[in-house]
User: What shape does this take?
Amino acid sequence: MTEKKAYVSNAASPRLRLIKYLHLFLSVLLFFVFWLWFRFPGGLPPIDRGFRYNYFVALAYAALLMWFNGVFNSYTLGYFRIRALAFSQFLADFFSIIITYLAVSLAWFSLWNPLPFLPLLVTQVILNCVWSYYATKYYYKIVRQYRTVVLYRNERDLHRFGDISGQPVERLFRVEAFIRCDGVDFETLREQLRGYDAIFVTGADSSLTNALSTYCIQEDVRGFFLPPVGSILMSGARHIKSFSSPVLSVRRAMIPMEYRFVKRCFDIFFSLIFLILTSPIMIFTALAIKLYDGGPVFYRQVRLTQDRRRFSIIKFRSMRVDAEKDGVARLSTGEDDPRITPVGRFIRSCRVDELPQLFNILSGDMSIVGPRPERPEIAEQYERILPEFALRLQVKAGLTGYAQVYGKYNTSPYEKLEFDLLYINQMNVLTDLELMFNTFRILFYKDSTEGFDSQMPWLAEEKEPSEEEELPV
Assistant: This one.
């Protein structure tokens, strides 16, 4: 066993935890101070037993804040930019305040004026910005870069690790070598891996992957693997305890009746709430589209949901009415596509064009969380090259999911499948809540503006056509 290669020293790890706990403590303290000011604007009453409920409110807020910080990865130093950390912390503060306020109002049957909480939110934003800046600077001061090697099978697989060459992750991983591992056994690679602190692996066969994962554990090297679809399927396998050997069972997703009921209630409740809250935005969007060119506001398109059932998805029209007047499907080239209207470009950047899908959710064709629905002909094209792509249809299609939250606009079909299978493996109410709240976070992140022509090397000959090739309604 080699000497331990500590990315963060043993002495530094407690210090990092301490500064995270310090931020959490200051956030809760700020809430408690503003809460008392909100409840007792004329000054604190005599402290008696009845005052204890204020401590319970603060504890409830602290529990919510801890959960939301985990959902939004608010303390993941080194992997996110400073502004991303501060924004994630702002969202955690915002949702924690809203839920605490609603819970207390419901408990006391009194809807108080929430405006006094605005100074609290502004103060917390300042705290978040200051903490994120200095905590990140301190983090990079006490840690050292990983000496990193990338093992890959071909150029297509190598493309999937593009993120490690960009800020801020490149400050953690200094890539010093790229080694092709196609048809190479582990013993041939062993000496070449000596001295590296991190190994990124993509496209390796199962035997090499097993050997590399064992090596990483034995040598205390950080291993990062992009798994094949089969590995993700096995990650959801169930241990069958009736055999004397460790037998794992893989089967089609079996969704418990209780979870299906809760999920459907969840879909109805939140789709109604969001339809009410976003109705002014939807009315304004419809007027803007109509006034721009006089064309239809919505368009429909056939998509696939659970068990290949077809339904008509509804979106706001973002392209010219004659975008496909010759009947030929053309690829969208991103924001520079001349067929996209100025109104369409704006609503796409804000994701407002997706809001009418709330009606699809309310009707039961879609769920809030689930794999994004594909057009039947596009799904068939993908399945000819990747038969496993049909496994996404084990569950109902959704408005958001892993691929939308953690992927990118140009995520390849293979990676979409992997993200969706990860979700199917661990479907539960908490996962749905995490993905739903994380969708609010990505609404404010700008997508890549590159078109599919330059961003889909995995399926160069099977690119996805424009979403508006059918006649609007």
Observations:
- The radius of gyration is 25 Å.
- The chain has 16 helices and ten strands.
- Confidence is low (pLDDT under 50) at residues 1-6, 448-473.
- The beta strands are 146-152, 173-180, 198-202, 222-226, 238-240, 247-249, 298-304, 310-316, 367-369, 398-400.
